[in-house]
Amino acid sequence: MSERSGATNFTVGQTNLLAGLDIRVFERMHTDAVTTWSIASDGRRIATGSKDKTVRISDARTAQPLANPLQHHDIVNSISFSPDGLRLVTSAVNREIRVWDAQTGQPLIDWLVSSAPIEWVAFTEDSATVVTSGEARFPIATVSGRAPNWLPDIAEAIVGIRLNAGNVFETINASEALRIARAHRNTGGLQPLPTWVRDFLRGLP
Predict the structure, then answer these.
(1) Does 155 lie in the same domain as 135?
(2) What are phi and psi of 130, to 5 degrees?
(3) What angle, 0 to 180 degrees and rounded to 10, lies between the N-to-C axes of helices 151-159 and 174-187?
(4) Does residue 190 sit in the same domain as residue 90?
(5) Which of 139, 169, 189 is the last residue of a domain?
(6) Which residue among 25, 113, 123, 187 is the one 20 to 30 A from 89 at the CA level?
């Protein structure tokens, strides 16, 4: 079985579409022609890529958008949902690749760059690795279950900014960030921890 798995990926011009699916309905959400699209394994969501350098995730039945546009820097040429339906990988003609949350449309990683031109991108069957037509492989770190309740505090301490009770961003000064991080370090409630969190806390004065 091919490593490309988990969703149906089409290129404009192919005829093996799901019955009743009219891609022109989804093309209206773009400002230029649709170049590629992918349907999630549950059949409920469709992602379309376009010459307008965006990807749109929509309800496959109602054509209603489910997230804000996913922005690339060049024409989008391939899309694929992960087999578990949680992530979406996209690529563009400038060889950039990105993995997104398939529910929210938020990027999950920074840009990946292929050393070779890309005809398609996809996930392996375990949804843990992105593979490309150029035989590149990019392992994707994943976690299961809900995010731990300490994660927002640690993330805000690292970047130095947080959303306050008034829904306004405010700066966290260095001493406050250290106080937050030390408090979590001393509670003993951070196990098991990703390596980067352990290293961050270990390096605190």
Answers:
(1) no
(2) -95, 130
(3) 150
(4) no
(5) 139
(6) 25
Please state, as a whole number, how many other Cβ atoms lie within 10 Å of the Cβ of residue 27: 17
**Strand boundaries in the chain, DSSP class E:** 8-11, 34-39, 45-50, 54-59, 70-71, 76-81, 87-92, 96-101, 112-113, 121-123, 129-132, 137-139, 161-163, 169-171
- Domain final position from 139, 170, 186: 139
Model-wide pTM > 0.85: no
> What integer pLDDT is reported at residue 14 of this predicted model?
34
Report residue 40 as tokens.
């999630």
Which residues are CB-neighbours of 179 under 8 A, at least 6 positions away?
Answer: none
Note whether 31 and 131 are same-domain residues: yes
**Structure confidence at residue 4 (pLDDT):** 42
Angstrom distance (rounded) from CA 161 to CA 155 = 9
Which residues in the chain come in under a pLDDT of 50? 1-8, 10-19, 190, 192
Is residue 33 classed exposed, middle or buried when 0-12, 13-18 and 19+ CB atoms within 10 A define those classes?
exposed
Residues 122 and 161 in one domain: no
Number of domain units in the chain: 2
Q: What is the pLDDT of residues 29-78, one digit of tens each?
A: 899 999 999 999 888 999 999 999 999 999 988 889 999 999 999 999 99
For residue 155, the tally of other CB atoms under 10 A from its CB is: 13
Domain that holds residue 58: 8-139
Does residue 78 sit in the same domain as residue 12? yes
